[in-house]
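Progress narrative, Year 2. Work on 3-isopropylmalate dehydratase large subunit from Bordetella genomosp. 5 advanced from sequence curation to structure prediction during this period.
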Amino acid sequence: MTGSTLYDKLVASHEVARLDDEHVLLYVDLHIMNEYTSPQAFSGLAARGREVLRPRQQMAVVDHVIPTHPVAARDRVIVQDDAALQARNLKRNCDAQGIALFDTTDPLQGIEHVIAPEHGMILPGMVVLCGDSHTTTYGALGALGFGIGTSEVEHILATQTLVYRVARNMRVRVDGALGPGVSAKDLVIYLVHRIGAQGAVGYAVELCGTTIAALSAEARMTVCNMLVEAGARAALIAPDAITDAYVSARALHLTSEELRDARHSWASLHSDADAVYEREFMIDAAGIAPYVTWGTSPDQALPVDAVVPDPEAAGDALQALAARKALDYVGLQAGQPIAGVPIDRVFIGSCTNARIEDLRSVAEIVQGRHVAPGVRAMVVPGSGAVRDQAHDEGLDRILIDAGFEWRQPGCSMCLAMNDDMLAPGERCASTTNRNFEGRQGRAGRTHLMSPAMAAAAALTGRITDVRTIDAQLAAGAAR
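Result:
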């Protein structure tokens, strides 16, 4: 009998019942809700005369529809009628059921996938679900996290369980040191490009290797967050000393004895040496450059020093058609260098890149410099806590002095569900996770990149290799 993967162990430890060869009834430790995927679930419960089974194992936040205007948290108001209704419904349902809510005016409000880890809600070994696909973020801390649909939200509220189809196992080993100017975001864009938008469909992806081991907990969240763009049903990193330090500093609800016992349990959360994976990738980190997307799918990406690919060189007719359609939408030409493409907007934020480490990397590049004329650049911290820490460290002043808008927390321009969005035809350097058509606004054009790359684009007004930013700014000043 072969050993078990980390994913296998997490599923087995939460299996309430085996339903058939492919499905189990899975116990859920924590369920997170937002304002736009929960209303129908609560309505379904009410129609059946049921209440939430375990309210203390739920958490809710208003994050997708909330405006991020730079006003005091207590003065935040959702003006759009449909969005305000969603927020009111969430509060009413949470109040009625005794569920903790980070509401519109809560000073700690923020993006669900930023709030949960920073408040110590995510522990290694947990199963954490949410009606949002980027719940894979929590795999960075050794927890099994994945997104669910509205009907599944209702099932969890009623039973604290989920009928779950077990995934296959994939392992991605990344070894070596990332080069100068290359971050976790570049790594994960490269991985999505390498695996393909459908390459991990049906798989739980375990990340390992010396490169992964060297990443901070926040950088690991970036990688696990965006691996869903390769179709991954889960993304996992075995907990280690970095995980322990991050979680222990935040899980203040645990007594010293509980933390000691938890650490003993975390030590077993790793794949066995003889575990079998249905698919594996081996990556040399030294070969990864800063990456940027050129099309309308996160896997349509290339190194910043490369040229836009020729659709006719695609592997098959369908891929060629998709590439032609993408280039037509984004307004680029085959053979055109991606570096130097002018941009109108810069957005730094989202559940992928709105943590304190991300903001520090931006501030380091823009300090003493200024956003290029004609560019509107926004920084939206991932939570009230991140915003407060940035203020304490003086990062907000650096960003404001450089010409960035310093906003309140929220999903903001990651998706066009609030009033932060692109105008038709505007091109944006964005630290978000999706560049789909219309994702940031109807007919808006999105190029995904790291916070450092987005900062470089803000300063130059064009897609720029952050490794050459000093030389480019010097050359611009000399002209």
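The chain has two domains: 6-280, 291-478. The domain at 291-478 is CATH 3.30.499.10 (Aconitase; domain 3).
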